[in-house]
Amino acid sequence: MNSRTHFRLVVLYVLVGALLLVLLGRLWTMQVLDGDHYRRVAADNRTRDIVVPAVRGLILDDQGRPLVRNRTALVVSVDRTSMARQKDRGAAVLTRLAATLGTTRDALEKKIRLCGPGVQRPCWPGSPYQPIPVDDRVDPKRALQIMERQEDFPGVTAQVQAVREYPEPAGASAGQALGYLQPITQEELDRRKGLKVTGYSGADLIGRDGLEAIYDTDLRGEPGFRKVLVDSQGRVTGTAQEQAPAPGGSLVTSLDAGVQGAAEKALHDTIGSARKQGHKADAGAAVVMDVQTGRVVALASYPTYDPSIWTGGISQDEYEALLGKKKGQPLISRATQGQFAPGSTFKVSSVSAAVGDGYDLKGTYPCPGSYNVGSRAFTNFEGESHGDMSLHTALVVSCDTIFYKFAYEEWLRDGGTKPKKNPRDPMVEMARKWGFGTRTGVDLPSETAGRIPDRTWKRDYWNATKKSDCKGAKDGYPEIAKTDPTRAAYLKAVAAENCAEGYMWRAGDAANLSVGQGDVLVTPLQLTRAYAALANGGRLVVPRLGQAVVRPDGSLVRRITAPAGPKLPVDPKVLAYIRGGLTGVTKSGTAAGAFNGFDFKKVDVAGKTGTAEVYGKDDTSWFASFAPAKKPKYAVVVMVSQGGTGATSAAPAVRQIYEAMYGLGGKKALLKNGALPTGLPRVSYDGKAGK
Amino acid sequence: MNGIGAVDGYGEHARWRRRAAGLRRLDWTLVLAVVALSVIGTLLVRSATFQLLTDQGRDPEGFVKKNVLNLVIGFCLGGLVTVLDYRLLRAYVPILYGAACVGLIAVLTPLGSTVNGSHSWIVIGGGFQVQPSEFAKVGLVVLLAMILGEPRDGEVGPGRRDVLLALALAGVPAALIMLQPDLGTTLVFVAVVLGMLAVSGARKRWLAGLAGGGVLAAVLVFSLGLLKPYQLARFTAFLDPSADPRGAGYNTQQARIAIGSGGGFGKGLFHGEQTAGHFVPEQQTDFIFTVSGEELGFLGSAAIILLLGLIMWRGLRIATQAADLFGTLVATGVVCWLAFQTFENVGMTLGIMPVTGLPLPFVSYGGSATFAGMIAVGLLQAVHVRRRPFD
């Protein structure tokens, strides 16, 4: 052996030794130095947390009748992650599943795709890592097939789950108030601490609207955990740890299924008859409130829908057909989200404002057919003239010109077109005190605030619209002029006026406000609260639907209370006077026809009609009331959008509700002695009411 | 060719006596190390496959039985090579080389079957399959030893002609293997060629040129996009396995977790949870080291590395003591092969080398690899029993 070969063999010795040392060093680092870290990772790798969903609590009426309960259903779910890992991305499995479920693969694929921009329903709005329910009405035989032949259906599970059911006791659906559930999104899931859902948990739902959303935490309960051992394929090989779920609490509401049902029926009936009379009557709302506590006894909105369509996913077609614009967007609660001009029902605020501003409560005022506000003549309803009268009569016959006079004079005192530095605007200020223009704080989501127009609002609005107004003032409306030159000329004049002085609080604005017209908007719930305040002596209550949360065993978790509302800055004598006026409305005033033959001896109803003109549309029909007049317990308000006058559409519906509540006209009384149940109902877990 | 004549000169009796003496002359340390690794390997194969086979409703000892069969055949082949005079091999080298190349071409035809993205196997029925590239390693070692170990007069190293011939003859099977594609075996070829050239005494500029050429080739392969995307992904995944934990980085990450969680003393044979859950793919073959890592811990795994080191040390010792340059080169080639393959295989499970499909010598399950490994040891023994009496 020559020396070069020998030397290079020695180099090879060293090289091989070095390589082995590198391996040993690395092995030492990984196993001995970093061993703990890898052991932790390995444990995570091997176990999986399964969330055992808690049974969601019920929603009950004031007597313990369930408005929302659960039924058990066999739910078939598809795991996206598992599909993605299959060779054909799950195509074969989905084809088989579609055949078993009697649907198409295409339909299933649409159900399990993720919602996002540009993706139409059906799609999955929840977390992509959760099994996606594709069928919750599968019959047990087919579910069993899927469970037994797991090798044919990898990634598909069939599990017993609780799904929401709406029994509609006494015909009460209350869809918008109850709300609905939707799969939780990934962001919401991440925000929930300690709830890392992986794999098998099934759909975790979250309240998306109504009481389901507001009281979600109470209803949801605490999900249980099961730590299971899995192999690399995710197959469960054993259970390491288990914690049972805690079922959610049930929500006892102040809604009374009987009254709710009656209110919904009355609303439905009156809209039907309004349509018969040729009105469009596209929407409506009815609210019944306990005037002393602010508890909402009934909250109805029209059009309505069946909330059970949400379970099991909803297709775009279904969504459009059931919840779209054509169907009048039934998801929107007209009672809390609908904003309409209140018309004459608003005068309770205007009377108190006028008296507060110095007008004599006992005085007499002229009620001509028309009153000149500046250069424009403002008329009574149908131009009727009534001569001199008291404020009482003004409310009974709903005279507008008296209020125009008050508003115009107050406006002049504030400086007219050249306003003082700090104008008093008594009508605006008083309207705010009655709770208009701000949310009531009811325990429902997405409540709207309505609008009390004032000087600031006018300026903001003008800033936003002056561009188009000034263009209209300059160019006119040639398109409209082709067919209707008079209208085009009128529009041009209006545009010119708005362009030039639209930022100003004009006399016409003040006059319109005083009778609840023009830019004033209120929600039916706001108006109900205002009438409750009128009835209870001036306390502006905060409305509540939730009364208490109770455990499945019936014990109390918490009572739901409302903060004390502010007091109206109105003399109780003035309120009593207004109440007196409204008592006359149903007997000899604008609602006398609607209440003809009503048994006032049994329950004396006081109220006010409202007919709000809406530009380009039919009038909004209102009737706001309270009863019994002497010792008020309830405020009842009905609104019918595009329903004609208050006397013809809304007032008969209110009458129908009272008759049902008190059992008049041969009906059985829904309320014992006209009173709501005191205390909470005893509730058993299956939702059957006990006494 | 003198050796052939020398053997022929002995009578029947003398031959047997010589063979008995040869048995005593065997390197028993080497034998024991190989046997120890084979036993450990069989236990690890059982651990890696028992649960999986049970789950699949197959014979849970199926892999173990086949592994034992492979080992028995392997020992026989090794023994056969030992008793053959290795110098005789020179006569058969062209046949061996030709057979290896034919096998390598055959796998590229429809005769071959694809496992894990490499078209490296020929199925011969009855559940058996042959991986010609394993045998090509043996062929390469002997061929290079023959060309580079040609007796020379006064020259310290092989001439230019010999080097070029060696490179050309090594290049053919290497290219065929690259086509499969089997990156790991190609790299083994490179290591063997470099090591044997160096020890044969080839000039430094050849070695430097080859190393430079290798680097250039690697750069070209990457820049021209000759690698399949999955190869590139596997190659780069070891740098950051968390980048794609479900895809390319999965093996690497799961391998590290299994080994790391074994700690100093392991979880006990057959008690590895990661192994039982078969989180690491290919665990009875290329990733068998993860089973020892998890179940036997640092203690057991270091023992495996040291046993392999022992084999390499004996191999180098045999190379040093060989009777002629041919023997030295055969032993050197075997050591380079085993050393690189060990480093690559263990290194990839430890995350310091990219993932390629190479088995761990004497430990991994696999017929062709076991046979080739045993033949390699047989070659070492053959050189050893005919070593120079004095050094």
Automatic annotation (TrEMBL), chain A:
One of its GO terms (molecular function) is serine-type D-Ala-D-Ala carboxypeptidase activity. Its EC number is 3.4.16.4. Belongs to the transpeptidase family. Its main location: membrane. It comes from Actinomadura parmotrematis. It comes from the Bacteria. This is Penicillin-binding protein 2. Keywords: Carboxypeptidase, Cell inner membrane, Cell membrane, Cell shape, Cell wall biogenesis/degradation, Hydrolase, Membrane, Peptidoglycan synthesis, Protease, Transmembrane, Transmembrane helix. Pfam families: PBP_dimer, Transpeptidase. It is found in: Cell membrane; Membrane. NCBIfam families: pbp2_mrdA. It is a single-pass membrane protein. Residues 52-239 form the Penicillin-binding protein dimerisation domain. Residues 284-659 form the Penicillin-binding protein transpeptidase domain.
TrEMBL record, chain B:
Keywords: Cell membrane, Cell shape, Cell wall biogenesis/degradation, Glycosyltransferase, Membrane, Peptidoglycan synthesis, Transferase, Transmembrane, Transmembrane helix. It catalyses: [GlcNAc-(1->4)-Mur2Ac(oyl-L-Ala-gamma-D-Glu-L-Lys-D-Ala-D-Ala)](n)-di-trans,octa-cis-undecaprenyl diphosphate + beta-D-GlcNAc-(1->4)-Mur2Ac(oyl-L-Ala-gamma-D-Glu-L-Lys-D-Ala-D-Ala)-di-trans,octa-cis-undecaprenyl diphosphate = [GlcNAc-(1->4)-Mur2Ac(oyl-L-Ala-gamma-D-Glu-L-Lys-D-Ala-D-Ala)](n+1)-di-trans,octa-cis-undecaprenyl diphosphate + di-trans,octa-cis-undecaprenyl diphosphate + H(+). Its main location: membrane. The keyword Iron-sulfur does not apply. It is an enzyme of class 2 (transferase). Its EC number is 2.4.99.28. The keyword Glycosyltransferase applies. It is a multi-pass membrane protein. PROSITE patterns: FTSW_RODA_SPOVE. It is found in: Cell membrane; Membrane. The chain crosses the membrane at residues 26-48, 68-88, 95-115, 185-202, 207-227, 296-313, 325-343, 363-383. It holds the Pfam family FTSW_RODA_SPOVE. Pathway: Cell wall biogenesis; peptidoglycan biosynthesis. InterPro entries: Cell_cycle_FtsW-rel_CS, FtsW/RodA, RodA/MrdB. It comes from the Bacteria. Belongs to the SEDS family. MrdB/RodA subfamily. Peptidoglycan polymerase that is essential for cell wall elongation. This is Peptidoglycan glycosyltransferase RodA. It comes from Actinomadura parmotrematis. The lineage of its organism: Bacteria, Bacillati, Actinomycetota, Actinomycetes, Streptosporangiales. The gene is rodA.
